[in-house]
Structure formats: C-alpha cells, structure tokens
Design brief:
DUF4145; flat
Length: 223
C-alpha cells in the first residue's frame, strides 16, 4: 500500500486490535486494524467489515471470500509529501487518487490511468488512439530508463486490458480493477513524476550551484 501520511509505498501487514458485532450466524463481523509505515513510523488505522472465522478476518487473498469493506479512518486528512517540482495540474489529480484509494479503488485507478495518459501526451509528447499504444511508444524510446519502461508497461497486464478494453480506450471509466491495480497505478505515476519533473529540477539546481562556484572562480559556466 501507499502510506497516507508520507506517500511512500510499503508492504502492508495489518494487525487486528478489536472485533465488533458479528451477525447472527457468526460469519460476518466488523473490526479495527492498524499498521505502521516503516518509512515515517506513523500509524494507519482502518475499519474492516467482512467474513470472519474463529474471531479473525479471513485473508484477502482467499479466492472464495473477500473483505466487503476496508476504510482508512486515520489519518482522516491525507497529506502527501509531494515535491514542489511537480506541477499543480498533476499534483491535484494524484492527491485525489490517493484520497479515493480507501473509499473506491476503482475510482482511484481510473483517475490514475487518466493521469498516466495525460503525462504521456503532454510531457512525453506521445500520441496514439489508446493508452496501450501510447505505452508501447513510450517503452520503445531508448532514452527512457529500462526500470521505468518495465513499470509503465506492466500496467497493461496488471490492469488486464484485454479483458477490460475500456481501461485502454476510455481511461477515466470507473470499472472493476484487479487486486493491487490501484496501488500499482499510483506507483507508476509517481515514477513518471520523478522522471519528468523531480530529477530534471534536481539536476538544474545542482548545475546552477556549480555555475555559481565556477563564476566566482572566473571559469566558463556549464550550459
């Protein structure tokens, strides 16, 4: 998951701290779980509702039963530590996708797909009839780091574009998502933020600092 405090992704390991009422047949219950972000050490608390067995909630990866509802209740207000180098037009959509994560992964993933496509069109200058084609063109660019290309390309498989063509043709459509798809989509967008905005701005600042030193020494400046 992605920490709602600091925005860093980590492997979730929820601990059940309280059980609420269980329905009359003893199979459905409500509970409170918590996890700790290893990056910022802040707690995350959520309320879960779904199938229980021996007073414990069944695992999400059990194909037969899935928790009906998982809602983060703390932190209530999500503050994301996003770089100031990211333009507000992208940052606002990313934060909105983050906020939607606990309420509606489908809506969060749809917003992330639309944001991914906008980045490819506006920043990478890639045109195409669909997101899949745009991703293919992006990944064919030899100047793009291989790790980033592999991450971006994986969204087509993780999102199962073949089974859900609307994700490819109409990126903002709110439809069913695969397990982990919403989180992965946010990670991909964050990686593109780093490539398009954060790294270039960091290099420019270093270049400016070096030019100040070179100027003071009477040496030619870097272009």
């Amino acid at each position: 998951m992605i920490c709602p405090h600091c925005g860093v992704a980590f492997h979730e390991d929820w601990s059940l701290v309280a059980n609420g009422p269980v329905c009359f047949d003893g199979t459905i219950g409500t509970g409170i779980e918590y996890d700790i972000c290893p990056e910022c050490n802040e707690p995350i608390i959520r309320v879960v509702h779904g199938p229980v067995e021996n007073e414990d909630f069944l695992e999400d990866d059990n194909e037969e039963v899935i928790l009906d509802d998982k809602k983060i209740v703390y932190p209530y207000s999500i503050e994301i530590g996003l770089s100031e180098d990211i333009p507000d037009i992208y940052k606002e959509d990313f934060i909105e996708a983050m906020k939607l994560m606990s309420q509606s992964p489908k809506a969060s993933a749809a917003l992330s797909r639309r944001l991914l496509q906008k980045l490819l069109i506006d920043e990478a200058k890639i045109k195409g009839a669909s997101l899949s084609i745009q991703i293919e063109k992006f990944c064919s660019n030899d100047d793009i780091p291989s790790v980033l290309k592999e991450s971006v390309d994986a969204i087509r498989n993780i999102g199962n574009f073949a089974a859900h063509p609307l994700k490819d043709k109409n990126t903002g459509e709110i439809i069913e998502v695969e397990p982990g798809e919403a989180e992965w989509s946010l990670d991909i967008v964050r990686g593109l933020f780093d490539y398009f905005f954060i790294q270039p701005a960091r290099l420019q600042r270093r270049r400016d600092e070096l030019n100040i030193k070179l100027k003071s020494m009477g040496k030619p400046l870097l272009k």
